[in-house]
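F.,

This is the one I mentioned.
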């Protein structure tokens, strides 16, 4: 009886400690964003003076260094369009591999899985030169194309969810004369809300949080052309961190809020999408 009581207590203590360790950087980021001292203060965990001026500077006093409204707008435009295109690609590829039968289907699936195993960083330079030849560097359209082009390779979880939809529903629709398009839009999609939410969130997260590809593609020195990740990274450069570190922390909090709210609202569907897609391969 003693072991049954002690083990859960020890387990919860360990989990609470790990949660605290994980939360400490986030708490420090939040309290530093409210600091009246603009630079890095390593003497105190909590600031000696609290203020909302850092958030006001982000939104209402943009300058040549910290133009957060422009960064936020660029990232939001790229994220929304990438999300719409990528979600469409993933759903269509998943439907084709799950619900349709055609020659070399299995070979294409295997090839796409193998292709997805290669690190994306290996192709970045080649992508950059291709986009440069097309004149699409330093543009939001170029980034949207880069983020969306290979999204169909992430079909595996979505396909697994489509595999769980009863075949009899599609067969009944075919007997009634429904085309593949009608089956896809009127039967499969309405039954796939969890996996659609999962796909939408992941499709938005990629461009919203990416730094490497954005930094490679956007070579402009004008801060108005940057994304949020590029702009915030610039604030912690050696010559600027002493005057903008608290502003950087405030920007980090603001960037995390939309994703956190979206995830909390869609959490139930998000979990259902992951577990449903794991039932079949």
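My design for it:
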């Amino acid at each position: 009886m003693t072991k049954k009581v002690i083990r859960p207590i020890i387990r919860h203590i360990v989990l609470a400690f790990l949660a605290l360790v994980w939360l400490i950087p986030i708490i420090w980021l939040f309290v530093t964003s409210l600091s009246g001292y603009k630079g890095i203060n390593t003497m105190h965990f909590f600031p000696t003076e609290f203020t909302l001026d850092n958030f006001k500077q982000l939104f209402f006093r943009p300058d040549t260094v910290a133009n957060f409204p422009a960064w936020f707008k660029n990232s939001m435009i790229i994220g929304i369009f990438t999300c719409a295109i990528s979600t469409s690609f993933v759903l269509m590829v998943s439907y084709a591999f799950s619900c349709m039968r055609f020659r070399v289907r299995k070979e294409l699936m295997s090839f796409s899985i193998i292709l997805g195993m290669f690190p994306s960083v290996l192709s970045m330079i080649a992508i950059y030169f291709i986009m440069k030849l097309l004149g699409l560097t330093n543009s939001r359209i170029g980034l949207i194309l880069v983020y969306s082009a290979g999204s169909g390779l992430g079909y595996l979880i979505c396909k697994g969810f489509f595999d769980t939809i009863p075949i009899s529903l599609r067969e009944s629709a075919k007997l009634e004369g429904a085309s593949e398009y009608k089956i896809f839009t009127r039967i499969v999609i309405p039954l796939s809300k969890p996996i659609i939410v999962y796909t939408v969130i992941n499709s938005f997260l990629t461009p919203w949080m990416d730094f490497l590809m954005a930094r490679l593609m956007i070579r402009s020195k004008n801060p108005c052309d940057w994304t949020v990740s590029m702009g915030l990274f610039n604030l912690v450069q050696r010559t600027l961190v002493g005057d903008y570190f608290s502003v950087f922390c405030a920007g980090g909090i603001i960037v995390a809020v939309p994703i956190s709210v979206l995830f909390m609202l869609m959490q139930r569907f998000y979990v259902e999408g992951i577990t449903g897609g794991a039932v079949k391969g």
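The radius of gyration is 23 Å.

Talk soon.
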